[in-house]
């Protein structure tokens, strides 16, 4: 039996705490809430948060009793953005999608077994869905971005993920392995994913995967809105528009990768 490397458990706990704090921005989160989301004991969470704050990775609003991300992460993120952040390339596509459709448009990135929203641009239609916002994370297979990315992962990776995950516990029976496989097949057939109010009733979404230079689905463009704006005839038009922008962005990323290698 392989042994867990010394310190690996602590690193895993620190990572879980940081991810949980990141999903609470900008209002912050309490120690009790972090403990509930991570499954760690409250005293353990408090010790980890205090240690992270001492190093500048978290900040503590003593008056409100809430924890927030700290300045050290901003500095690190600014450096890492040169390699990983595609926001500037994607921004024009997100803006175009919002303008052309009137819906809320997004860019999400794959981070391990999750997607995290990086960009949001609201369209002109006055009624909006706020299920997805910048910094919000969902497991793969949940929300249109996570379905789109999961559908185009290598078959072995997709199956391994479905066998090890338990989406039903938090997101309900509509996210059982069989139901997610059906969504994957639908996505592969259409080219884009459809989320018909599976997270919040009446809040629909459509997503298309964006591929990195090696052909892996690493990001997704998506649109969300109320159900009446996603009738079948419009779904096809929205899907085609998403696929167009996702393809254009994928080509830009491939071109950028080729230029960096010269």
TrEMBL record:
Pfam families in UniProt: HTH_IclR, IclR_C
Highest taxon in the source lineage: Bacteria
All copies of domain HTH iclR-type, residue ranges: 8-71
IclR-ED domain residues: 72-255
UniProt keyword list: DNA-binding, Transcription, Transcription regulation
PROSITE patterns in the record: HTH_ICLR, ICLR_ED
InterPro entries, per the entry: GAF-like_dom_sf, HTH_MetabolicPath_Reg, Tscrpt_reg_IclR_C, Tscrpt_reg_IclR_N, WH-like_DNA-bd_sf, WH_DNA-bd_sf
Protein name: IclR-family regulatory protein
């Amino acid at each position: 039996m392989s042994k867990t490397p010394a310190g690996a458990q602590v690193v895993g706990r620190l990572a879980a705490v940081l991810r949980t704090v990141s999903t609470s921005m900008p209002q912050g989160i309490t120690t009790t809430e972090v403990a509930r989301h991570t499954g760690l004991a409250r005293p353990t969470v408090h010790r980890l948060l205090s240690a992270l704050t001492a190093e500048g990775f978290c900040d503590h609003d003593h008056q409100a009793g809430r924890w927030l991300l700290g300045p050290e992460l901003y500095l690190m993120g600014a450096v890492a953005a040169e390699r990983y952040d595609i926001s500037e390339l994607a921004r024009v596509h997100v803006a175009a999608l919002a303008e052309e459709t009137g819906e809320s448009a997004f860019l999400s990135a794959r981070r391990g077994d999750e997607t995290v929203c990086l960009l949001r641009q609201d369209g002109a239609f006055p009624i909006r869905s706020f299920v997805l916002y910048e910094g919000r994370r969902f497991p793969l297979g949940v929300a249109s971005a996570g379905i789109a990315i999961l559908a185009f992962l290598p078959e072995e990776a997709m199956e391994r993920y479905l066998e090890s995950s338990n989406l039903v516990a938090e997101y309900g029976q509509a996210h059982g392995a069989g139901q997610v496989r059906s969504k994957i097949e639908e996505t592969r057939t259409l080219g884009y994913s459809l989320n018909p109010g599976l997270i919040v009733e009446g809040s629909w979404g459509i997503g298309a995967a964006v591929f990195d230079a090696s052909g892996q689905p690493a990001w997704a463009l998506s649109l969300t809105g109320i159900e009446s704006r996603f009738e079948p005839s419009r779904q096809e038009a929205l899907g085609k528009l998403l696929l167009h922008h996702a393809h254009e962005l994928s080509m830009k990323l491939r071109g950028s990768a080729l230029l960096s290698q010269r």
